[in-house]
């Protein structure tokens, strides 16, 4: 019988598993650090810099926290979120591309929401910053956002956040001290404008809200490979068995940034605990919204709870701040996430099963 009319059995080509394999391998095998940037560029020109102490500007921000002074938190509208997202995007472009036009555009758009973008030349250090804060006549509790005006020489973009100012034992000032001492290695400092406990229903707890201007800023600047450090505080009398500092990435894992910070804290003789899914569970930040977002996008998240014993001791708080500063200046000495060799092994195993199945299918297909 002639074989000319005989159809060959179809061969199943496992294209989809191959694509999945490539995606998995690329996600977990790419280095977290990015290419070094050119640090010789100066901040954008054509901008009117205000020369004054940055601490003076920050003191004004701290004096206006709702809860510390009378006021009411105002819920943003969908339009407000969209406009602020545009502002954050323009600021990011302005700094990363040394683009004065984007900074000026950000300032113009911010005015629409009664925010002001102030270019501050710190008279104490000569360092340059962009400060995004509500106008003096407005106080809605939407937060303030500080950015270095120069691109970081580090290969890891670092963001420091203080979502619970005042309530968490002066956490916003500790965050500020680390932000300024690492210039320009930390790209931004985000500070909530309202105390966590101001609203009994959790409306003003920015670490646990899926929608807020604070979260909008977080999402605008959290990228794959970046590191977000959140500063919190706990009352030692309520947690008497806890160490001086408890670190967590929110899901019980350990990323490279967290590991480096823990090592430097221990070197500074500060006792450290790391949430592993069970130990230090009450301080583990499992419900932290910014942590969930960071992990989902391949960013390192470090939730740092500081005991009140440290906060009220000038020597200990200096040791804490110096340890985190050194971790940042060292670029953590680790990638944000260490590569887990089990991931590509599992992927290869799945791929092998598809290949075997396709081979057996081709053998058993009828003529």
How does this structure look, described?
By secondary structure, this protein is α/β, with parallel strands linked by helices. The chain contains eleven helices and ten strands. A ten-stranded mixed β-sheet has the order 1-2-3-4-6-5-7-10-8-9, with helices on both faces. β5 (158-162), α5 and β6 (186-191) form a beta-alpha-beta unit. The longest helix has 23 residues, at 342-364. It is globular, with a radius of gyration of 24 Å.
| N-C termini distance | 14 Å
The counted number of beta strands is 10
Strand order within the widest beta sheet: 1-2-3-4-6-5-7-10-8-9
Rg from C-alpha positions?
24 Å
Strand and helix order: HEHHHEEEEHEHEEHEHEHHH
Largest sheet: 10 strands, mixed
Low-confidence stretches: 1-13, 18-42, 336-344
Compute the average pLDDT.
86
Question: What oligomeric arrangement do these chains adopt?
Answer: single chain
Helices and strands, with pairings:
Blueprint: H1 15-29, E1 50-52, H2 54-62, H3 78-96, H4 100-111, E2 115-122, E3 128-134, E4 144-148, E5 158-162, H5 171-181, E6 186-191, H6 213-221, E7 227-234, E8 245-248, H7 256-267, E9 272-274, H8 289-296, E10 300-307, H9 308-311, H10 314-329, H11 342-364
Parallel strand pairs: 1-2, 5-6, 5-7, 7-10, 8-9
Antiparallel strand pairs: 2-3, 3-4, 4-6, 8-10
């Amino acid at each position: 019988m002639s074989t000319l009319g005989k159809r060959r059995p179809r061969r199943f080509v496992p294209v989809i598993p191959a694509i999945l394999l490539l995606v998995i391998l690329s996600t977990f095998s790419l280095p977290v650090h990015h290419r070094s940037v050119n640090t010789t560029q100066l901040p954008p020109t054509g901008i009117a810099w205000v020369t004054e102490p940055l601490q003076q500007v920050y003191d004004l921000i701290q004096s206006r926290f709702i809860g510390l002074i009378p006021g009411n938190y105002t819920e943003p509208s969908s339009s407000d979120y969209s406009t602020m997202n545009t502002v954050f995007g323009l600021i990011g472009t302005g700094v990363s591309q040394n683009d004065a036009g984007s900074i000026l555009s950000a300032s113009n758009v911010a005015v629409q929401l009664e925010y002001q973008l102030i270019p501050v030349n710190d008279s104490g250090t000569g360092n340059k910053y962009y400060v995004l804060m509500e106008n003096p006549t407005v106080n809605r509790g939407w937060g303030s956002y500080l950015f270095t005006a120069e691109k970081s020489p580090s290969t890891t973009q670092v963001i420091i956040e203080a979502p619970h100012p005042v309530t968490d034992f002066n956490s916003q000032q500790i965050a500020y001290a680390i932000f300024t001492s690492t210039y320009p290695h930390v790209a931004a400092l985000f500070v909530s404008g309202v105390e966590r406990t101001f609203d009994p229903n959790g409306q003003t707890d920015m670490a646990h809200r899926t929608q807020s201007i604070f979260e909008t800023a977080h999402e605008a600047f959290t990228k794959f490979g970046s590191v977000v450090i959140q500063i919190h505080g706990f009352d030692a009398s309520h947690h008497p068995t806890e160490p001086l500092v408890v670190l967590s990435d929110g899901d019980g894992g350990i990323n490279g940034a967290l590991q480096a910070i823990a090592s430097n804290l221990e070197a500074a003789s500060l006792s450290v605990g790391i949430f592993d899914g069970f130990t230090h569970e009450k301080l583990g930040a499992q419900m932290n919204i910014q942590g969930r977002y960071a992990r989902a996008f391949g960013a390192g998240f470090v939730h740092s709870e500081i005991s009140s014993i440290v906060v009220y001791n000038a020597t200990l708080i200096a040791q804490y701040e110096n340890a985190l500063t050194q971790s940042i200046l060292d670029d953590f000495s680790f990638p944000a996430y260490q590569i887990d060799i089990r991931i590509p092994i599992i992927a290869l195993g799945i791929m092998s099963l598809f290949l075997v199945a396709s081979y057996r299918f081709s053998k058993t297909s009828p003529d």
